[in-house]
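Each letter names a residue; structure tokens follow underneath. Both lines appear below:
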Amino acid sequence: MDIEFLRYYKTLLECRSYTKAASECFISQSALSQAIRSLERELGFDLIDRSVPGVSVTESGEEFYRAAVASLGQIDRAIARCRERESASIRTARVGVEPSYLGFSAISLVNEVATRLLDDVSLEITRAPRASLIDQLKDGSVDLAFTVEPVEDPQFTCVKAVSCNVAACVAPQSPYAEETSFHITDLIGMRLFTYNEQTSQGKLLKPWLTRNGLSSIYVFEDSATLESMVLVDTWIVALDIVPATHAMPREGMRTIPVLESGGEFFLYAVQRKGFSPSNAASVLKSHVVLGNLGLANL
């Protein structure tokens, strides 16, 4: 029996729509319909009652759905355990980061730790939004993730890894380019831009701006958009969350720290519970956290 067909059937019943389920499974609606019919032929009974509109499940289909959910759960857990065992044996750490400047700085940090202290560990880097990283942690395709927001889920351990500050990013031709630092009050009246509120950085920066009596235009989807806009308009001051150390240089830009902005933001190391301390990702996380204890107290 094709496991993917079981996943398609599970998704169909959860969505109650062929269109939505096909989109979730990244296949065409006709391919989904054919998969369900193929599954029914193999089982010898109908799963879907096609005599009524929409997606109506038969009594046998309902019982089979419960069995499929349980079986897929066991399979996914077994796959995760096997991947974990394999990862531990070959000393590979699969690390996920968000597609942001802070995420790229996290890559720089873990590369430095792995190169300097863990010469027997190889890295596989994945860049994905926070929600996708959490899903990948759950299914075992990522061993360790670094996120700007903490993950409050009992399935995971989440610790502060690196202390972060707010910084102002400006073009080299900006009238502010010669500044070595800003106080929060210096930002009043400036053309402040930052990430939109759908991003992790935007969610964190909005209340920070409000608390400090500042207003901003929320336009950036990612660090690449931020950098391109700053270089086009020399009057733009783009706010970003940056690590207090191990910040990657931004080519063609000045990154100016905002004083008194620390102590609120952190880069968090997130890992699924159950990993052994000797696992490559666990060792990497320990070194990253311990190496930054002066910046982030657990």
